[in-house]
Write a structure and sequence with these properties.
two-stranded antiparallel ribbon, D-amino Acid Aminotransferase, Chain A, domain 1, 9 helices, alpha/beta, Rossmann fold
């Protein structure tokens, strides 16, 4: 629909402080061509969806299908909910319904160690600190002709153990042909990441080329630690250089 008939998508902006207003729900009911006798039920449903979205800290609420019965009832026959993981501590009743058997085991393992991981279908594994930098890293890998195998943000306060666990998760993906570590140390110190890389290399048999780009707090100390460790890696000067080297390494060149 979005590609072929974007005009059919109805949008209604909601002011966060004011919330969804009655006139907006009536407007939506009219735009969706509900009959006058169905308007009250439709507006109640829209209001309920909004209150559910906000009250349960949802990132998405999707109703499909929404039907009108022969009696004129407005019913949501099925719905899909996504919740903000960072807000689940406020909703233990929702967390209790989590079924890890339905999730990617790598993502489950990552969450146990405080890591943000999403598996993809590429062959260049990424270990990055910061969601924005992780997205930029994935983009530049694609720009230079590669395919990222994952999104992995170790956050700003990761320790050596978390870095080691991150490498274990990356190596568990059989499609991975190279690993790109891209760290910009602000809150996180580069030397801590360097120690984590060394520890991971000694604990986990990487078996694939490792490209490392480090910048930020204690960067020279971190680079020196890596240099003296004897760990086999490919050093990169900047993000573009790192991406190109990772793409080349993944191709076995």
């Amino acid at each position: 629909v979005a590609a072929k008939s974007p005009e059919k998508i109805i949008r209604e902006p909601i002011a966060p402080l004011a919330g969804l207003q009655p006139f907006q729900t009536r407007k939506l009911a009219k735009q969706l061509r509900f009959e006058q006798s169905q308007t009250k039920a439709a507006t109640c449903l829209f209001d309920g969806l909004y209150r559910t979205f906000v009250g349960l800290d949802c990132s998405m609420v999707e109703v499909n299908p929404l039907v009108v019965t022969k009696k004129g009832e407005v019913l949501a026959l099925d719905a899909k909910f996504n919740f903000d993981d960072n807000a689940l501590y406020r909703h233990p009743e929702i967390l209790a319904m989590r079924d890890v058997a339905e999730e990617d085991p790598r993502e489950v393992e990552a969450s146990r160690h405080g890591l943000n991981y999403i598996g993809l279908d590429g062959n260049i594994a990424c270990l990055v600190n910061g969601a924005g930098l992780a997205m930029a890293t994935m983009d530049i890998i694609k720009f230079y002709g590669g395919n990222p195998a994952n999104f992995l943000d170790v956050g700003g306060g990761a320790d050596e153990e978390q870095v080691t666990e991150a490498f274990k998760i990356l190596i568990a993906d059989q499609n991975v042909k190279a690993i790109l570590v891209n760290i910009f140390g602000g809150i996180m110190k580069v030397d801590v990441i360097a120690k984590g890389i060394i520890n991971a290399a000694k604990t986990v048999k990487l078996g694939v080329p490792l490209v490392v780009r480090l910048e930020g707090t204690n960067v020279e100390k971190g680079k020196q630690i890596l240099k003296q460790s004897g760990v086999s890696l490919i050093a990169a000067d900047d993000l573009a250089d790192a991406a190109q080297k990772a793409v080349t390494a993944a191709k076995g060149k």
